Amino acid sequence: MRLIPSSFLSILAVLPSLCQANTVTGGLVGVVLAWNVASNAAIAAASTTSDETVAKATNTNDNDNEDEDDNDENDEEYESKIQQALQYFKSKSSQLLKQALQEGGGSIGETSILEIAPNGDIVSSTDVEEELRQTEFALTAMKQELQRLQNRLKLDEYENDDDDEDDDEEEEEEEEEDSDDDEDGDDYDYGDNFPPENYRLSPEDIDAQLQNDPELKAILDSITDPKVRNEKYGDIKSEADMAVKMDIDKWHTFKYWEMHAYFSCARQFAASRPVYDTDMWNEVRQLWHDFANEDKLDNFKPGMKERTYQFSTDSFDPPMEPFHAGEKGRGLRAARDIAKGELVFKATNNTVIFTHGHTWRKFLFHIYERHGEDGPFDGGTTCDVLLWSWVQRIEKDGPLVIVADFDNGSLLNEGRDEPGWDKPNVRCGKEGDEMCMMEYYATDDIKTGEEILCDYRGFALLGAWRNMGV
Ligand SMILES: *[C@@H]1O[C@H](CO)[C@@H](O)[C@H](O)[C@H]1NC(C)=O
Ligand SMILES: *[C@@H]1O[C@H](CO)[C@@H](O)[C@H](O)[C@H]1NC(C)=O
């Protein structure tokens, strides 16, 4: 028996997809780190944990820029975050940790190769390659466990907003529920194990349905490049396949991409979506006001903060106008010459905040089912709002929130200072600002008619939907 060498840590640390450092700090849910970091706990367990590394991890600043191939410092930060995740896991439930590891280790042979030693270390009895293989299984298993836990915690937090006292009891229940889930299928996975009787349409039916959609046919026919056409059809088809397998009774568990599929957003965006005029914006705002009033009545206790609210009472007339920006769809262009450093856009009373992922999810369904549960459904507006929403912090070290603009500001397209992208010409925050305070400034002189582009990664946490529970 020996410990897994900690060199695995550095192998993993350079895998870009595992290296997003979008973690949350503070709060019960905050301790549950982004799954891609935390799921490495199985490996991290191999090196001994100390209070010091945990303390360090807690003090580490978030690195929202997702620099992937950085240096030792990042490795260290990464490692300490893993340690923190592991500590959390161990403190919450050694059973959970064990289950994840057994699931991983048990998949190959009869005997579990990864084991938990009495001191809490994870040990292995096999050679290095075998360990790496095992660890990959363990990672997957751990990921699933963590996702469930995180999901539960989000729902619990949502339901008991101001009462954190009996967390431990709740945690116990979670474990039991989790084992139940395993028996009757995975609650959060609409994959292959979904009971066949719930399939409403066969894949052939879906094909037939899509072939009989004259609007879609026209869209596809207008694409001259067969590769692009096939890709587009493939995206729409795979979303349709996923959507029929989804159980609407479990709508409250739908994740970002599940909702994207359920509302047929790939299909919606295949068509050219309209540039909203004043009436259309007013309609969306009214839908939001109706929803916000309804949500206030729902499970709302005195003293509780609203779960969705307008960012400010300000108004702002930006020097930009919407247009159809070719392949990018809708976009914004300068309505006049704009000087470098000028304020071009800021959050206003049209900017709304959602403090809980589930409230945002409810709002999407509120739009989708605006004409009632039997339809007709408004997938177009729903997908627009889904697309226009992002996750960020609006206070330093504050919680993550979901933000959306119900005005032309939503049409701002993304630019990056990278090959294959158009260069950005506005950024959130002035040069030197540490935080994006929802004000956008020109980084260059911009001529009338030029498209306005912003690198979202400067403020939006593109991988943080999971941290919001969606
Ligand atoms: C937003 O764009 C519409 C055109 O689609 C325009 O009529 C309206 O004035 C614009 N609103 C603002 C605040 O710029
Ligand atoms: C913000 O104020 C403008 C002007 O009063 C109004 O037309 C708009 O509907 C408001 N936005 C929201 C979301 O209520």
Automatic annotation (TrEMBL):
Highest rank taxon of the organism: Eukaryota
Keyword Endoplasmic reticulum: no
Signal peptide (from-to): 1-21
Pfam families per record: SET
Biased composition, class Polar residues, residue ranges: 48-60
InterPro entries with a match to the protein in the record: SET_dom, SET_dom_sf
Residues covered by the SET domain: 306-457
Residue ranges, annotated region (Disordered): 48-78, 152-201
Biased composition range(s): Acidic residues: 63-78, 158-190
Keyword tags: Signal
Protein name: SET domain-containing protein
Lineage of origin: Eukaryota, Sar, Stramenopiles, Ochrophyta, Bacillariophyta
